[in-house]
Queue: 2 jobs
Job 1
Amino acid sequence: MVSGPSGVGKDTLIKMLLKTTDGIYRSISATTRSPRPGEVDGSDYYFLSKEQFEQDILGGKFLEYAQYGPNYYGTPQEAVETRCLTGEDVLLEIEVQGAQEIKRKLPHAILVFLLPPSIEELERRLRNRGTDSEERILDRLSIAKKEIELVRLYDYKVVNSDINKAADELRCIVQAERLRVVN
Amino acid sequence: MVSGPSGVGKDTLIKMLLKTTDGIYRSISATTRSPRPGEVDGSDYYFLSKEQFEQDILGGKFLEYAQYGPNYYGTPQEAVETRCLTGEDVLLEIEVQGAQEIKRKLPHAILVFLLPPSIEELERRLRNRGTDSEERILDRLSIAKKEIELVRLYDYKVVNSDINKAADELRCIVQAERLRVVN
């Protein structure tokens, strides 16, 4: 599981990891929010209606789910468990609460937190993206500060100052975990 | 700490690790055996007299020591502890018993076992080295079989079938351990 504040470079690093490392299945989240331009159902997200999502909650079909504003987000359980059983590694990009919930259900799961070099640098990156309003940026920074304090709940931390170094470190974590002696 | 049977490629892999990874101090063992041609005191080993070695044992100067045939081998404590205190990583090439003894004294130490692809391949490599008598080769193979059973006492295992892959895996273990969240 990979967590980290908005703007830290999660998407880029995960794409680099999937390119360099075989045998990883990236879990696709379900959501009730509308697809953004270019987003594909079943590839970026499973886009569900609110009714369907709530039915799936009641059916126990999520490893974890959460509500942000008016929308649900969740991790479908079946796909993750099927891949684990076939010996594949499953990668989840997930926020801090969801990561903890899954760790309780799947104690052998490994948690990696991606950190910005500093809050100032994170702010600079969020502004450079140019996708968020001033209010949204301040909101994201405030969430980031709280999340970063929770790095102690994680197994590994990777500081993304140099993208290639951070990508190598993320790959090394996966490699090393695969080499662990399991008794 | 790196262990593995004779002929598995420990020396080569450790040299490759030290080339690709900064901040590792390779511990130099002490021994009472005579230097072989080309071996340098203080670089390959600390070559000590039997009297000096036994005095150092009594003085508590070894993290671990063992006797093989007529000779002592040991890990000097001070050099290891000094480097640990300055935040450097210390690399020990060490046999199974010694590794366990040090793990008891330094519980945060990480143990890596290097495995041959198979016993048959190990035998082929030992014969190809051409340095050992037939008796010595059979002796080494018999020790190897016993050692390999003890891989369960280790944190990580690396199979050396492809030297570059194994070197990358060893490097990844060091990298990943450096990224661990310590609470």
Note: The first strand of chain B starts at residue 2 and ends at 3.
Job 2
Amino acid sequence: MTGTLRVAMIGHGFMGAAHSQGWRVAPRFFDLPLDPVMQVVTGRDDATTAAAAAKWGWAESSTDWRETIARDDVDVVDIVTPGDTHAEIAIAALEAGKHVLCEKPLANSVAEAEAMTDAAARAEARGIRAMVGFTYRRVPAATFARSLVADGRIGEVRQVRAEYLQDWLMDPEAPMTWRLDRAKAGSGSLGDIGAHAVDLAEFITGQTIDSVSGIVETLVDERPLLGESVGLSGTASAERGRVTVDDVAFFTGRLNSGALASFEASRYRTGRKNALRVEVSGTRGALAFDLERLNELEFYDATAPETELGFRRILVTEHDHPYLAPWWPTGHMLGYEHGFSHQVLDFTTAIAGASSPRPSFADGLHVQRVLDAVERSSAADSRWVQTND
Amino acid sequence: MTGTLRVAMIGHGFMGAAHSQGWRVAPRFFDLPLDPVMQVVTGRDDATTAAAAAKWGWAESSTDWRETIARDDVDVVDIVTPGDTHAEIAIAALEAGKHVLCEKPLANSVAEAEAMTDAAARAEARGIRAMVGFTYRRVPAATFARSLVADGRIGEVRQVRAEYLQDWLMDPEAPMTWRLDRAKAGSGSLGDIGAHAVDLAEFITGQTIDSVSGIVETLVDERPLLGESVGLSGTASAERGRVTVDDVAFFTGRLNSGALASFEASRYRTGRKNALRVEVSGTRGALAFDLERLNELEFYDATAPETELGFRRILVTEHDHPYLAPWWPTGHMLGYEHGFSHQVLDFTTAIAGASSPRPSFADGLHVQRVLDAVERSSAADSRWVQTND
Amino acid sequence: MTGTLRVAMIGHGFMGAAHSQGWRVAPRFFDLPLDPVMQVVTGRDDATTAAAAAKWGWAESSTDWRETIARDDVDVVDIVTPGDTHAEIAIAALEAGKHVLCEKPLANSVAEAEAMTDAAARAEARGIRAMVGFTYRRVPAATFARSLVADGRIGEVRQVRAEYLQDWLMDPEAPMTWRLDRAKAGSGSLGDIGAHAVDLAEFITGQTIDSVSGIVETLVDERPLLGESVGLSGTASAERGRVTVDDVAFFTGRLNSGALASFEASRYRTGRKNALRVEVSGTRGALAFDLERLNELEFYDATAPETELGFRRILVTEHDHPYLAPWWPTGHMLGYEHGFSHQVLDFTTAIAGASSPRPSFADGLHVQRVLDAVERSSAADSRWVQTND
Amino acid sequence: MTGTLRVAMIGHGFMGAAHSQGWRVAPRFFDLPLDPVMQVVTGRDDATTAAAAAKWGWAESSTDWRETIARDDVDVVDIVTPGDTHAEIAIAALEAGKHVLCEKPLANSVAEAEAMTDAAARAEARGIRAMVGFTYRRVPAATFARSLVADGRIGEVRQVRAEYLQDWLMDPEAPMTWRLDRAKAGSGSLGDIGAHAVDLAEFITGQTIDSVSGIVETLVDERPLLGESVGLSGTASAERGRVTVDDVAFFTGRLNSGALASFEASRYRTGRKNALRVEVSGTRGALAFDLERLNELEFYDATAPETELGFRRILVTEHDHPYLAPWWPTGHMLGYEHGFSHQVLDFTTAIAGASSPRPSFADGLHVQRVLDAVERSSAADSRWVQTND
């Protein structure tokens, strides 16, 4: 490695743990062009932020993100706070000349996302890089799916089905968290997990969604307020609050090629824990990726002899699969957090190589526009709405 | 058995073979209240109809369906012709005092289906029975799924996903058959297979679809005309014709309980051969039925301890599963055509017991109204449309 | 069809039902060279045999098998009695000039099987055909597996794993049936289901087992005697009897190519209902057949590019798959009893074509020798024992 | 944490990478009672060991393991060298008063393993801990399987099937590595992967194997010598060498309860990449663990109503599953190397709590005795051989 990359992370919840693991582990397995230094983590509360620094291995902690991004000894700002704060922090960081990695969704509104994208464009002109964290693109099986499509192995895309299903809100007494508050989260299942389905479907197919027709809906209107946070959820307090985001979203999108894609996002699908599944069907083949079996890819080669047609289960653990070479021997599985190491690899490579990393803020803005179009369609009796890119 | 039931079958294509197998095999395994007699098969062409009679074991053949339904020695008229002829034959048969079993879809239009339903109601008053052939209800795993829902094992239904996916039209040079001609088939994937998805989702949940928003679309506009029929397809002639039906249909339905259901019907989904899948998610559990593994049911009991939650694969081959007792020992599989024996059992039981068989013509009309509403929604920019029951 | 084939069936239990279904259904779907006539069924008890004749569609019933095989109007004797009676009936039938189809296992001992094979050889010289009923060879996916091996698609066979697992004897209070009585059944899991695993592994690989090392064992020594038969089991009487057959059998076999094959037969494997599974691994590929998903075959082509390797799930329901052409369209499943129609096709074809049907009595004798060798090895501290073909 | 635990690792191949990851990551997720310090890594070659230290994050490197274990600033010796060196290093380290973690197999021979176990017993008396690295015990689904058995959820164990299948030696031109050299590796598939199958089957069932009957065999006698190492394999040189270990091992074991267990280890099973699968069948249930889907456990509760019986797929990612609480939310997968963090947790907990960690050297010796008994049985015509514990 020819130099270091000093990182400041803003926020330290679930995503902070995942990002920390990425910064720590990536340099052990990949020959990064720049050596990440876990410089400082920043949060609102002094004690908990200091504890997070100790736990996740950051050299320092701070409670002032503006101070953090002003530091000379910080090269990268890694934003893992709730979506309502992304715009302010990211724009300030870019203007301060820091490379920015921002968790998804890029923002809670199209307007914020546009401002961020503008800021990224201005920064880009000065050699400053910005990337949004749709990490599932970097699960090797998903990356490999994209390359199969790009190589023409499934022919022209004819239909897509993408769904992201969870069930952790099934219990109507599960408490309100910031993820159920529109002011903090922007939207519910739609933005939290539907955003992943949109990004992954577009990433794998190499296409974009031009218009949508859909519906979003809240199934449980009122919940206990959050007592103490535990993991993604927590304990219930005696008071109740109003759920202001959607619980489920169903929509159909028109891809730029004209093909139709069907989407579903729900945190109400009993028995599905983290079921992000994308199926792509084309004129010469088909494939399916499922995050609950993230080391596998189903691939169907329609050009095989009729008697030998079938979906094959590829274990995406070979040396020549994306990102796999430095990890373990064939058949040794990767887990959820490995994508964060791959993200560090790609981001540091882009910074060192002076290239534009993907997914860019413009990519994140586009996803935000799709989500916004879904909400507008839902409000308009499910009429088709342009995503207005 | 206390008497016989003399059957006339109108039509003798793929469905004629399946129905013949039902009439022949059912009395060997079930104690039917009436003994079916395969009296006469009726078709348009003399030679091919006579050949069908010999092949499928009908005592006689005829080319005049009016004459057939007028016969004194016919108790039941079993209609397996394309949908454009259902109304005329079924109404005439009911008026002639014959019990009628009519293949799905009930008709090619709501108007025809209404007329048929009216005729069935008039006949019912005279003790004449009418049933529509949504045979997949009688796959034991599907019937068992309905009983789990009815018994409250999955609680209140919160979400449904139903899809019927095939790929036999992927090849743009596959020839036009009557199934691609709106005049004969009414619609394309929507009526051919989407109808099954609608009926099965409603059957399993015990609910009906009140309104829909959706889109139907033709992917291949023009195809070679059909030369010689082979199975469901055939050889291509040199001339070409215009495809007048949809290839794919995506729609969302609102169930009478308020829950949303997502549907997809396609004969363009590469690698899916006969993939009718219905997933039902409720407050206490979930289940999934898949016709490509028709002897299995996936069931998730959300009331299990957290560490033991999981979809279980039930082999629906136990003595106490629906329809299973007279068949083979546990673990010995049933196939596609067994549903037609179960249909014969249920239909003859209804006739002998003077009860109303289900799915009734009214059920068939309702499905037709759902399909019609999907087409109307598609034409109205996917706005929500009432099914107008 | 150019003539008829008049069939007498001896026995009418579970296997009688399956064979009856084969004789009735096969001529409806296949163009048989000879038209089967279900002439007479023969049993021990007058009333139950007459009832079986009525139920399964045999023209007459009889309680004297010797009389039956002496009839001029009988061309084929189909033996579906317990194994202890096979030799006497089959030899007499062959000597009476009748073609014989005998259920597996061919006999309860090697000596009996040898006598039967000798009788079949003598009969063969006079144009009389004999076949043993290893019907699972005729499940299309199993037949297709054999053709893949024969075509070199998996290269040289290196390893085989075959298991037949059920759990219907798990309950120690499940009553004694003839299948638990050595005098009637010859052996337990070994002969009842292990025989199928042996035959199917040999059939798919095209190889034979030369020697074995293994162990057989009885897990439950004593059970209630059988009260009334119900299906494969029945009610328990108050008296108890001694189980005289094995419950489980584990053995390793050496194939004639030198490759090793691992076998397990058990009616004590909790949760496995009818799990006959054969995995074959070769230098260029691998495959796996599982009777609980009998319409599927798993196939692995090791010559694919490294990144695209994977077991594919072939739905064996295509027109060009073995036996499939006259059945239903692609994706419409077959069940357990379809193999019996295929057996009728192959047997009548052999008779009409004056060729030797397979599996022959010699094939059945070979399986018996393997089973016998397993028992001898078990008695000899699991030393390797030649099968002595 | 109340103190530190200074670790020296001897060896730095594939296993060294995995162990390093465990030492680095465990303290970030678990509240360890002692804080590991990655003090020194020791290898044969100066440059490569220094490179390993840098890559995997060890403070120092050394080429003299005797010097390393003599250091005052080393508390733990972690041995990840080939099996032929384990005994010498481990005994010396224990005698030097260091806690020892030794990769499996414990040794290449029973005699060595006995000496190591004696040394561990002597050290234990002085408060020094020794553990052997059968890490797959610490895959949460495997640990959970053991607890289900211990809790009686499957009743009395009646049958076990354990197999560890890979295919990376299928190619007869794959070069010789130390894993194919009996002097270095002790045995082939048997010790390399069969050892895992033995340990995991015993761990899950809570039983031990008393006697075995089996066969081991070499399928490819001669291979190119190794040029340059790459991952588990490498490039082929022009010279050839003799393979002195087994390629496949098939054996049956008798558990101390009397139940039989069937084993297979093979690096020749086409299409199986890292397929360690253990199935346990009991009087009240059954379960199956498969390393290729390591976040899942199949569980069958035989006490469910007959119509609801079925293997359920439990996603072992819940907060209350073993080891899961500090990792990610439900449905976020773990990978191969997480077991090494769990190993660090358990080992440091034992050291801090002055308890004996498992698997102990005695456990490792027992596995070695089973492997040895398999080889002796193979040499004795597969007769049954006591494991002589």
Note: Residues 181 and 244 of chain B are 5 Å apart (CA to CA).
